[in-house]
Amino acid sequence: MKKIAMFATLALAVPALALAAKPPSPGSPAGNQYHKPAGHAYGFYCQSESKTHVAGTPGTPFSKCVTAMAKLASGATSSPKTACASESKKHVAGKPGTPFSLCVSGGAKLLQDKSS
Q: Residue 112 in 3-state DSSP?
């Protein structure tokens, strides 16, 4: 009887240990850590930018930011401020920061990740 009880306990404990060793899934709160993208995912650094078109202006703030990130990554410029110069410096109601400041912030993160 003792052997059966011991094997039953062991049979229940092994799957629990195996589940505890798994890394967190991407959708779980533990998996929501900052991960730098692989390859040319410049849009990752521009996630906070608006993707809506503004009348009379070519492109969107998001597309301008992605272009600026490509310039920084390729070495065409080494300054996020210079790369994001085409972004608007006007505040948008209900949004924190300006498109320019969000772009500069993303550019700084890109350069930090590139140097690491």
A: helix
Residue 57 Cα distances to 60, 61, 87, angstroms: 8, 10, 11
The whole-model pTM stands at 0.66
What CA–CA distance (Å, rounded) separates 68 from 14?
A: 51
pLDDT in tens, 15-66: 554 555 555 555 555 544 556 666 678 999 999 898 988 788 889 999 999 9
Tokens matching residue 112: 């930090």
Domain count, the chain: 1
d(CA 35, CA 51): 22
Full DSSP string of 76-107: S-S-HHHHTTTS--S--TTSSS-HHHHHHHHH
